[in-house]
Every structure is written in C-alpha cells, then in structure tokens.
Amino acid sequence: MTGCGSQNERSCRDGLGPSGELVVLTRNAPTTYYLGPDGNYEGFEFELINAFAEHLGVTARFVPMDNTSEILEAVARGDGHLAAAGLTKTADREARFLFGPSYLEVQQQVVSRRRSRTPKSLDDVSSMRLAIIAGSSYEERLLQVQPNFPRLNWTATLEKETEELLEDVWSRRLDCTVADSNIVAINRRYMPELEVAFSIGEPEFLAWAVSPACPDLLPELEAWFEAFKMSGNLKQLKDRYFAYVPTFDYVDIRQFKRRIKSRLAKFETHFKEASLLSGFPWTLLAAQAYQESHWQRTATSPTGVRGIMMLTLATAEQMGVEDRLNAESSIMGGAKYLRQIYNRLPESIQGSDRLYLSLAAYNVGYGHLMDARRIASQKGLNPDLWSDVRSVLPLLSQKRYYRKTRYGYARGLEPVRYVQRIRNFQDILEMELYPLTSQEGL
Hints:
This protein folds into three domains: 128 residues, 3-Layer(aba) Sandwich (D-Maltodextrin-Binding Protein, domain 2); 101 residues, Periplasmic binding protein-like II (D-Maltodextrin-Binding Protein, domain 2, 3-Layer(aba) Sandwich); 184 residues, Lysozyme. The strands form three sheets. The chain has a five-stranded mixed sheet with strand order 4-1-5-12-6, sandwiched between helices. A five-stranded mixed sheet has the order 9-8-10-7-11, sandwiched between helices. It has a two-stranded antiparallel sheet with strand order 2-3. 47% of the residues lie in helices and 13% in strands. It is an alpha/beta fold.
C-alpha cells in the first residue's frame, strides 16, 4: 500500500481528490482507534481524523500498526499520508518528521501498583523491574536522564503496547512502566490499582506526523486545525473523551467492578428490555442505575426517592410505576422518564450533548437545567453544548446567580458529577463486558 510515495510528480493534496482517500497510520488503543461494543469504530484521534478528512472532501482509511516505531518508519517511507497514534513531539522526532499542530498536552508518568513498592524517584526505579516501549518518547526521555542515574536500567520492548505494559504492572508481572498521562488516566478506570508514582520531565505535546512525501498537506492541516479549534469543536471532542476521566475513586471503582459480577445479572434482562423500549444503550441505563442506587432494589433516600432508579413519588406516578421497589417497574419507569426529557429538549441540541443534558436534567430537574442554559447564553457560551452548560451549572448554588433565575437555588455541582460518574461507570462496564477487539490483520 502506498499513501503518497508514488505521487512525486504532483501535489499530494491534489492526489487526494474528491473521490480519493486519506491514508492514516494508527494503532489500536482506547485513546486512538478501536472497535466499540456497538460495532462502530471510536477513539479521540479517529474522530479528529474524520473531521479533517471531511474538510478535505475524502474518506479516511485507517491502517493499524503494531507499535510507534513501525508507524514512524512507515510514515517516513510514505506508506500513508500521516500518522495519528498519540505521537509525542520530541526534539529528536521533530528533526526527522513533519508535525502538524499540537492537539493535547501530556505528562510522562512512572506508574506502579497500589500496595506494592512505590518508587519516589528514578533512583528507586533503578532496583525495580521497569519495562517501556522501544523507540518511544519514554525511552528517549530515560536515555536523556540516564547519565544522572547510572544504575537506571530497563527493558525496551516492541512486543507490547503501553496499555499492555500497564496491565503487566497491574498484574504484578512488572514493578513499573512509563506512560503518558492521558493513557494512564483512561486505563486507571479499568485497572484502579494502578498508581502514579511521579512525573518525569516537563509536559509534552501530541501531534500528527505528516509524510515527507506530502509536505503540501501540512499548510492545509494547520489552517483547518486552527479553524477547528476556534470553532470550539476541538474542546468539545476533548470533553467527550477526556473530561470525565479525572473523576476517579479507587475504592468506588473497585467495588463497582465487584458488583458487576455479584449484582448486575439479577437486573440485566430488565435493562435490556428498557433499552429496546427507550432507545438508550442498556449499559447506559445500568450505569445510571448504579449511580442512583448501586443496583439495590430497595434503596431509599432521606428525601423520599426510592428504588433501583431512585424515582420520586411524583415521577413514578407520571410514568405509571405503581411499586417503586419493583426492579423491573423502576427500570422501565426511569428509562421512560429519561426518554421523555430527551424528547423535550430543544431540537438545536444534538448528539451526545443531548444525552448528557438529559441526564443532568434527570438529576437536577428540567427547570434548573433551563436556568443553567440561560446563564450559559448570558455568558456568551453555547447553551446546546454540555461542556459549556456543565461549566455554569455550579453557579446555580451561588446567590448572585440563582436569585435571578426562574427556578432558584439548586446544587448545581451535583448534576455535573452525576453525568461524569455515569459516563465513567458505563465506560468501565463496557470494557469489562466487551474488551477491545484486536485489529491484527486488518
């Protein structure tokens, strides 16, 4: 396969054409490109690439490869138009490759396992089993600091990716590894015993590497990226994949994973039936129910909400639920209520923003959500974007704001955390039930 290497006599940009394709070298990982449980491809860089391809008027064709070294060698040969694989812009790489604009700031972190030996510095690491990816920015950094830590040594491998080394640490096959902060944050949701020991060096930036055979693609990429960033689309995409990651509670997540095995089976059929009726993924409804009641059928709060979906008496009556402690009725009622809110929102709210705003309204009330949307508009923000409404919801508990609203005071931070935790629980649940599909051979 040749991405641009055979187009020496003409513009690589022209070679894409309206009916052409953008060949993208990547890797199969949660932060880049993977097959989700619904059979569709997902990933932060996957969506970012598709947005650029749409701008070009072409289709993106993703070519997954085994490791970063292989990807960089391939893009240097012109086997693809660009590489999008969580590549760090290092001084060494910038001397050899063309890089597009930076899209994410990351920090290299030494990661160990909770309740194992935790290193405090690279001196401590010297006596531990450390493995990293060969040819990675991690190895480049360790080689730079090694003169100051002469006993420091490590195993460099091309047989595994960073996510696998993190799993080795989690499984105690390794003492520690080095990974970028965004990769660590996502994987700690699935392996909560992972622990950040300390950071190495200064923050770095991720960017796409453009094939040297396609230098004319770089100015167009830079112009598009600036417009994409200024439009707020980059912020929205980052929020979709990373904003909820910092919501991390080690004990809570470990307990949640145990309860997937011990409690979920009793209610799974009901969640799937509610999914068919409401149109929402059953894993979303299950995650919401866990946030509400920890999957306890008889849960009751001091304010009078009851059942696995913690319905108020008024909501239960409105949804036709006669017994809130009946799990099937409660789940059906909760799903029906969420759908009612979803359908009620203005048509201008689209996609995932519509879902997240619906969940927030389920928690804080539709009127308070509308108040928050009005505050967002007053501040020059977009009331149709969850990322913008989320930033102003906490203001509903401040007198100088709520006294001017129609529905008054609300604990505005609560729906923010509510949505964050449901997203987190759903992501963990789907990872437990539907592990990432290997793309080997594609």
